[in-house]
Design goal:
Blueprint: H1 3-10, H2 25-30, H3 37-64, H4 69-78, H5 83-101, H6 115-125, H7 130-153, H8 157-179, H9 195-204
Helix pairs in contact: 1-7, 3-4, 3-6, 3-7, 3-8, 4-6, 5-6, 6-7, 7-8
Pfam families: UreF
Function: Required for maturation of urease via the functional incorporation of the urease nickel metallocenter.
InterPro entries: UreF, UreF_sf
Length: 214
């Protein structure tokens, strides 16, 4: 089932640029909406139900049929109303492809695909199944923000990882739901939105001093 390969792809130490992004958390911390472990948990659950679901569905679809990547990329762009978030997603997609080309032979995928689309194409090249691509996407959506929470709020990393462990079943459920839609037309894929993340991303992009790129 390629579990070891999945671990390589989902490893936070993979040099794909994810450490430079907070998944929108920095803006929400600044606004006072996220301030402790309980509100981090609420933030991560919200991301699982929205952006993680969308990312997992697009990663699974790109893994199932990498040749659809241009169409999927356009579909994901339509689901990302914030220019700042589109820029961040494409930057992470570009960095992921650069790292992946050192490990696997990749098909043509375009110059700067969105990160979930790039993830799906890379997962297919690594021999993974769509559901595994979806797991990597969903897990990455919450684990990146959780790691940022440790830095932004000075939280105990042990308690933050305990939170990730509690969220793991929900992460698996989201991934399974997303993977079941992998063969759907692009327009029918999940399109759950999080307006506060969009607004926060645009405000965050104007800051002169910030810890994370997004």
């Amino acid at each position: 089932m390629g579990l070891a390969t999945l671990l390589v792809l989902a490893d936070g130490r993979l040099p794909s640029g994810g450490h430079a992004h907070s998944g929108g958390l920095e803006a929400q911390v600044s606004a006072g909406r996220v301030r402790d472990l309980d509100t981090v948990a609420e933030f991560l659950r919200g991301k699982l139900a929205t952006s993680a679901l969308v990312a997992a569905a697009f990663a699974a679809a790109a893994c199932e049929r990498p040749g659809r990547s241009p169409e999927l990329d356009a579909g994901f762009d339509c689901r990302t109303p914030s220019p700042a978030l589109r820029k961040a997603s494409r930057a992470q997609g570009r960095a992921l492809l650069r790292a992946a080309r050192a490990m696997w032979a990749l098909p043509p995928v375009g110059r700067e695909p969105h990160q979930p689309v790039a993830l799906g194409v890379v997962a297919a090249a690594a021999g993974l199944a769509p559901v595994q691509a979806a797991v990597a996407a969903a897990h990455g959506t919450v684990s990146g923000a959780a790691s940022a929470a440790v830095r932004l709020l000075g939280l105990d990393p042990y308690t933050v990882h305990a939170l990730l462990a509690r969220l793991a079943p929900e992460c698996d459920r989201i991934a399974a739901t997303a993977a079941a839609r992998a063969g759907d037309p692009v327009d029918d894929l999940p399109a759950a939105g999080a307006p506060l993340l969009d607004v926060g991303a645009e405000l965050h992009a104007t800051w002169e001093v910030r810890l994370f790129a997004s």
